[in-house]
Design brief:
The chain is mainly α and about 200 residues long. The chain is built from six helices and two strands; from the N terminus they run αααββααα.
């Protein structure tokens, strides 16, 4: 009987520790999701000018860390067998439209449907990717704000593996490519002048 009591106490302690860890993960994910939502909303407003790409690069890079945490942990099992209704999510179409306006001329890109099962090229759009990620994140945030921590984590993890992880990775690669072209694609004369200036201060 004593051994059974010890085993029961140990199992309860392990469950309590896991619950604390999941609560911490949920709080961290909610914070970083809000940071991303704030960043894309600010960029979509058109007020950031030449810093817009850098802000998006930082926001997406941080989000990759967030997603990696969700993907690395064991599958989160919600307490209920159905997802509670958190009410209608905010409309992200205005953000999508604002991003498309800010990114006009560099919004579209060539994407791969699935690098493992379907390597055909398809059209991608940064504005679509960024808004889609925002929609997935805000849905989880609404659960979290209602105190539905397990449901929020379940949704963030599921949607990371099925949707926003892929879309945020694709958008991040495009942004890296854009910044690389902007900073490295210079004509030979400009490059020569810069090299001369560097060698003859």
């Amino acid at each position: 009987m004593a051994d059974e009591a010890i085993e029961t106490t140990g199992a309860e302690a392990a469950e309590a520790a896991e619950a604390v860890e999941l609560a911490q993960l949920a709080a961290t994910t909610a914070l970083e999701a809000r940071d991303y939502l704030d960043a894309v909303t600010e960029v979509a407003s058109g007020q950031l000018g030449s810093t817009a790409l850098s802000v998006l690069l930082l926001a997406l890079s941080q989000l990759q860390v967030t997603g990696a945490r969700l993907g690395a942990v064991a599958d989160v099992v919600p307490a209920r067998r159905f997802e509670p209704d958190a009410g209608p999510d905010p409309d992200v179409d205005p953000v999508r439209a604002g991003l498309a306006n800010v990114l006009e001329g560099v919004d579209d890109y060539a994407d791969v449907a699935d690098p493992l099962t379907d390597a055909h090229l398809v059209r991608g759009a940064l504005s679509d990717d960024l808004a889609s990620v925002a929609a997935d994140l805000v849905h989880g945030v609404r659960h979290f704000e209602r105190g539905e921590v397990t449901e929020a984590l379940w949704w963030w993890q599921f949607s990371y593996l099925s949707s926003w992880g892929v879309r945020s990775s694709a958008a991040l690669r495009v942004l890296q490519s854009l910044l690389g072209h902007l900073r490295l694609d210079v004509d030979a004369e400009t490059a020569s002048d810069a090299e001369f200036d560097a060698l003859h201060p």
